[in-house]
Every structure is written in structure tokens, then in C-alpha cells.
Amino acid sequence: MSRLRNRGWVLPVSVAAALLLGLVPLPALLQPIRPYWLALVLAYWVIETPERAGLGFAFCIGLLADLLYGGILGEQALRLVVLAFILQRFRARIRFFPLSQQALAIGGLLVNDRIIDAAIHLFTVEPLLPWSYWWAPLPGMLLWLPVYLLLDAARLGKRGR
Questions:
Q1: Cβ-contact 8, 109 below 8 angstroms
Q2: DSSP H helical ranges for 49-90
């Protein structure tokens, strides 16, 4: 029996943690720069285990996020499916980048996510997003290294020393 099979709990627990982190209340000043935790966790799983996390998985957790966060039904699902699709398409390249370059790629994907979200708000006649909304990909990009290392250690069973 493989060590990876014994760690099957890591994927659902990491997704649940990302969903809960998205629900944590933040002060009004910090709200616009909240990292998109679900996208970071999904990006890790699509890059490292594409057989377990694909477009269907992204769609399902996106719908769950839509229900939990109370937004437009399908908004998070669309955003996460686009993210997963791009990651699947360029997985072979991104996977072998150093983590610093992976962080830049993830930052670009998070900016793309913001563009999709802004387009959805525009087409659904929702209020326009404030300019501070565009800062959120930066903390997400900076958090890529710790998120990647934490999930990799949990998935592979490595212990910190």
C-alpha cells in the first residue's frame, strides 16, 4: 500500500480549510485583499495530483463555495474551472518551475480570476468592484510558497525538523 493512499484525507481537509478561511470575517480595511484560498488549494492539487483534482472537482467545490459564500450561483464554479483548465493545460511547464516562478504564474492566474470576476459583475449588473479589489492577487502570490510547502508536506507525510 502506497504512502500517498494513506494520505487521502489531505485533499478534503485542505479544501474544507480553504472554504472556512474564506468565511473568516476580516476588518473592512483588509477585506479587499483577502487571498483566494480556494484557488490556491485547488492550484496545488491540480498541479500535483491532476488525476484527483480536475475540472469536475473544480466545478463541484466552486458550487459549494457559491452556496457557502452566498454569491451568484455558478460564479465561483466558473472562476475555478477556468483556473483549473489553464493549470491543466500548462501543468507540465508550471510543475517544474522553481517555487518563486510558480508564485509568479499563480499571481498571473489570480489576476485572471479577478478579471473574470469583474466581467461577471459587469454582465450581471452587480455593483462595480472597488480599486482595492485588484490588490488581492498579491497576497495570494506571496502565500503560494507556504501553502505549497504545507500541502506538500501533508500529502507526502514529511515532518518538519
A1: no
A2: 55-69, 75-89
Hey, what's the cell of 130? 472597488
In this prediction the pTM is: 0.90
Query: Rounded CA gap, 34 and 158, in Å?
Result: 29
- Domain total of the chain: 1
Give the whole-angstrom CA distance, residue 132 versus residue 43: 24
Q: Which range of residues forms the domain containing residue 90?
A: 5-156
CA torsion angle for 63, 106, 148, 26 (degrees, to 10)? -60
In a domain? residue 161: no
Chain segment 57-100, per-residue pLDDT in tens: 999 999 999 999 988 899 999 999 999 999 999 999 999 999 99
**Do 72 and 124 touch, CB atoms closer than 8 A?**
yes
- 115 is a domain residue: yes
